[in-house]
Amino acid sequence: MTKKGSCNCGKISFEVRGALGTPDACHCSQCRKQSGHYWVSTDIEIANVTIKGERHLNWYAASPKVRRGFCKICGSFLFWHPNGRSSIAIAMGAFDMPTNIKLAHHIFVREKGDYYDIADGLPQEE
Fold first, then answer.
1. Residue 98 gets which letter from DSSP?
2. Claim: this prediction has a pTM higher than 0.85
3. Is 116 part of a structural domain of the chain?
4. In the predicted model, what is the mean pLDDT of residues 46-51?
């Protein structure tokens, strides 16, 4: 099984081999500011990901422990990667449809925006 996706302008594309992990919605202030809302992603082993157009990929050190990958042409926020970790989080919104998976839970809900409610009944972690 493979899933494909890309940034908004198509300069960066990716392919994931194998099943997608269950996605989570991150409501932390960094994800909200980077994406404009909360950010939903799935964790994938890096060995199972092929990225094309890497010359258009820019990495932002969001903290000393984590970097965020985005397209330097269109600005799409695609990847979240903790330093030294063998997996990478990939934005669910960047995948081509259908993904055939559903959101599993919400994280960092204590930092969520005050302009929305989480009312889907899924587990929430502070």
1. P
2. yes
3. no
4. 98
